[in-house]
Amino acid sequence: MEKFIWAFIVGGGICVIGQIMMDVFKLTPAHTMTTLVVSGAVLGGLGLYDPLVEFAGAGATVPISSFGNSLVKGALMEAERSGIIGVLTGIFEVTSSGVSAAIIFGFMAAIFFKPKG
């Protein structure tokens, strides 16, 4: 039960930070999302995001900052195996399933529902 509470607090805290960035600092949603992705990448590169995931579970893996962490983790893993070219291929290898799923489900939703534009 305690893990659920920490997941809620950490995930909610990341969302609150994003909302403050938009409301107080008047950043656009694109700037806010980019900042959160880069923050997750920096924390992942410094080895600080994985302990947060261990502590908060889905509270740290669901927000967009986890995407930045995944990018860095994939790049570092593949760079150890393949050298400098692995930095690029590792990014695609680790994140391709999530991006592919988003594209496929977005396309399917567009087929079944009429988008408003």
Automatic annotation (TrEMBL):
Domain of life of the organism encoding this protein: Bacteria
InterPro entries: Spore_V_AE (IPR014204), SpoVA (IPR005562)
Pfam families registered for this protein in UniProt: SpoVAC_SpoVAEB
Keyword Transmembrane: yes
Name listed for the protein in its UniProt record: Sporulation stage V, protein AE
Annotated TM spans: 6-25, 32-49, 84-113
Cited PANTHER family: STAGE V SPORULATION PROTEIN AC-RELATED (PTHR38450), STAGE V SPORULATION PROTEIN AEB (PTHR38450:SF2)
Keyword vocabulary terms for this entry: Membrane, Transmembrane, Transmembrane helix
